């Protein structure tokens, strides 16, 4: 399946990095565990690692923003208070956040050098895949969550119906994981999204007629990485801009939406406020493109709707 | 000059009210004072009154949201704490907020029944009109601010280069005051904007080629009124949605932007969360259309740039 | 062991309820699971249920406040967005939050009437009991967490080294669970705390000389219940006041502190702002007394320090 | 009149600076204008200057916190967004905030080097002196506000019924301006308060029997300065701690209270989170002592109550 840019859909004015992926930010690693089993299991987890070292000992600055907080994002208050990330980020489904926290705690406790660690702020995002997945069945397990952490690698990022995006639905179409990146003033900015929300889809500003207006519910988690030396305050401001990219895709921002953005910087420092505007613009367009990639790379899927207790077929977006 | 809808630009899926203006919300009154004098004065003030009575005695529920807080919005902490509006809202220029507060205080002190009032939370929004106006010259005066309050009336709302929009620039074009409204589930939702920001203009999703990418700075104040019985928490959530309408017009959300939204309800009550989604969608599209109206109704203007100390000509948007 | 009031320490000016406990608020139930095993296990969980019915179907209004966010409180963003609680609250240790979420999810999924529920916002608070407990050993288990939920009952509340307070240390002394209540204008206000923080202890304003100034780290979770008909905004304001009670006990509010307050109302409604002041004052003094009860009811304890990997003895406060 | 420390009331464990005043922080300047005229005018303004240079060109990092937002604090959103102060801070009465903003704008526009400045974020705090002052009479004027700015100097700070504290009432006693300072780890921390609130006064933890429990309303503005190199996030955290000092004096934190804290650092830098705890403790005790100094230095005053329209006599605290 082609990505947005392969189809001639070019969002914004900045150039992407070589992979057009969050892994264009040096050091960033992504890992998926994808669970497609029988008629009912369509779920998974996606791990985002800011670098390959012991993150608990070598933390990165981070910021966090909420547009609509109908969601179960874990670890937000400590990120906001201390402005740093001390564990990888795990994305998964709505009812699996506790297990993802367990996996992150076990992961950190087990790292060499952490033998006396007694406090760990696990950061977990989620969207609800119950439209295609038997979400009540307690998958991924804690062990499966750890597989996503262990699978993390740099290089190209698998998109669409993988990892935490396996059972996602967006705009009544198959959603999932998407990514994109931008070069800005010598820095790299990368975004990864878990797209599972609704509204009236716009592709680079134009209405996409095959989507259903009636399907407006759902959520998105947006993770942003950069090697620009940003303080937590400016990372929070950067995270906020991703919601404008979300808005440009036609999101309905409904009551039941859980819209969260987390941004981290792999370089320490304090870029001045006056230099932020290009990064802010890039955050908008990178998010918009990452979402389109999530949709375009997802394909069709047959699964099980846990609310209606019926099988359900969801089509992938085709241009 | 035609408004967006007269030109066939129809934003969103809800129908507008009879005036397609914030004054479609029963009771809401708008007043402008427009100051165009000599070569250098291009400024003014716009008053928004939730109703025609003594607002200090008969308050309305209100919510407030900030996207980027580079601005001088007055009265925000008390609106957030108490969830209510006790004065009209005045919009004006960046260096005139103190005088607008003075005018609101004097207005409230002078109302019959307020003889022993000793605390008044004046609510004032602003954008920077120094691109066309000698903003350092201390206009509007306190007396001119009061003229805007006294001029307030229901009925059609003058748009474009009037009131607090007189000297506005948006997307490198002439900006100003715009308004729109929507009917939603038997309720009315109205928006009035003071549009003075930048980015890459999109008209109903399509790029508008005549704007300059280089002009990305500036601010917007968005005021939203409804007769739906919303509590302050849901008014705050409603206000937040207006930023999605802003994003859809192509805002760059730059470092220097002051993006504020205030929402008030003319009816007391507590509509449940579950009924909010249609209002949220309408808030997005009403804001987008109000902004387009501001641009389309503005026309050309010649004024004085207070930063470069030179005359400046700004064109209005033509479709 | 006597409670504060039994010792003549009378905090504030309002009268307590019959039990001087959070369970004086009609319907509120508390359950503990206490794990004291061998030399190293000193931990547990405490469940707070706003009422005995299906809380997911019959929700209560709630507010949330953070003083210092170095903590892992789960469920906060949805409580803030929607203003309601849809699961019981579990308190436990820092590394057990994921397991507590799992227990709450399983609890809600299993309730009759919840067969098609696919989204659950588990609310969990924690403090770090690693000074007396082998926190890395993954206790309480998910099953043990559910025992706390199942044990919940109205009536007197066990205090001190029980439930989530089993391994707590406060002011270098043994901390734990404490509770208190107040009657205010015909309503009942109750507080339950998990006290595990430091500073220089003050008993009703007077220094308590036996505490160590050097022990200033740690956290507190404060849960407040009332049958006054408060909206989420005023519940948030009420929650904020509890930090003044915390301050009056001599808290150092150190960098490593996780200070969280959650307030819920068992009655729906919108008490006006103007009636809040007595409840605000009562929130301060009830919190102060609940903390003193936690300390006074705790007794001595011998356990295991997970950071130093040594046995440790902590004395209880004696007046 | 003696200050707290002269009376043997020693708050906390850190040593004060040489003046035990906010001006112990190098560069900080304080200026008062005090208006006591006839029977009815008991008001004024107090200016806080972080340094003697052009602050608009040479800004200082700043943070801001609200405990209860029933107040008219101006400039807060920009301080929060950008983390910096670009004008001096003015404190005055509730209905004079607009005039204080006018004075700050005029002050900044007039400074050499600011000839093309077109945007100024005036920062103004207030409390309500209408219990002793004819607050409706529009004093201080803009010109009087500027006198406070021009009077600013380093050295000892006049306390009590001066400047913005002229008409203050606290705990039913005469309130006003107070200050204190602490040395912490080689840095200086200074606090200045405008104390005008109520509750049940505690002096170093002990009840002060002469105050009236019935007088619980009112507000406080707390300004904190340090030469420790703190980022805006940690300045915000520092500002938050001042509310614990407020709580320890017995504040009732009533509905009508406007409790605001602003903290700024005269040195740029990013002290790590792990070094903050001593500064946090010092912020608590410095605020508590500054409040006691405000009360002790205030003396008796006769004035005019603008709400009852009657003369009123208020006693000063005597130990």
UniProtKB/TrEMBL annotation, chains A, B, C, D:
Q: Which domain of life is it from?
A: Bacteria
* GO terms of molecular function: aminopeptidase activity
Alphabetized UniProt keyword annotations: Aminopeptidase, Hydrolase, Protease
Under the heading InterPro entries, the entry gives:
ArgJ-like_dom_sf, Peptidase_S58_DmpA
| Pfam family membership, one | Peptidase_S58
Q: Which PANTHER family does this entry report, sorted A to Z?
A: BLR5678 PROTEIN (PTHR36512:SF3), D-AMINOPEPTIDASE (PTHR36512)
Listed name of the protein = L-aminopeptidase DmpA
The species this protein belongs to is Gemmobacter caeni
């Amino acid at each position: 399946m082609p990505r947005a840019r392969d189809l001639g859909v070019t969002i914004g004015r900045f150039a992407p990095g070589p992979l057009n992926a969050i892994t264009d930010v040096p050091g960033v690693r992504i890992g998926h565990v994808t669970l497609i089993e029988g008629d009912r299991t369509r779920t998974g987890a996606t791990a985002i690692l800011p670098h390959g070292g012991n993150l608990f000992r070598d933390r990165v600055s981070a910021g966090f923003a909420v547009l609509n907080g109908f969601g179960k994002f874990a670890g937000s208050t400590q990120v906001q208070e201390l402005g740093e990330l001390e564990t990888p980020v795990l994305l998964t489904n709505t009812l699996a956040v506790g297990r993802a926290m367990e996996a992150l705690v076990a992961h950190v406790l087990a790292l060499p050098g952490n033998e006396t660690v007694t406090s760990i702020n696990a950061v977990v995002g989620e969207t609800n895949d119950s439209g295609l997945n038997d979400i009540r069945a307690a998958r991924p397990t804690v062990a499966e969550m750890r597989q996503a952490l262990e699978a993390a690698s740099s290089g190209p990022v698998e998109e669409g119906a993988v990892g935490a995006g396996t059972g996602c639905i967006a705009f009544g179409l198959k959603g999932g994981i998407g990514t994109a990146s931008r070069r800005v003033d010598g820095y790299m900015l990368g975004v990864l999204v878990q797209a599972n929300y609704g509204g009236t889809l716009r592709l680079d500003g134009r209405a996409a007629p095959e989507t259903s207006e009636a399907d407006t519910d759902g959520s998105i988690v947006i993770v942003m990485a950069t090697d620009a030396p940003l303080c937590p305050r400016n990372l929070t401001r950067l995270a906020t801009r991703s919601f404008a990219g979300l808005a440009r895709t036609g999101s309905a921002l409904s009551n039941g939406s859980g819209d969260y953005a987390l941004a981290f910087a792999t370089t320490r420092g304090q870029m001045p406020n006056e230099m932020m505007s290009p990064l802010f613009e890039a955050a908008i367009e990178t998010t918009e493109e990452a979402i389109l990639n999530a949709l375009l790379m997802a394909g069709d899927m047959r699964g099980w709707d846990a609310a209606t207790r019926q099988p359900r077929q969801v089509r992938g977006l085709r241009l």
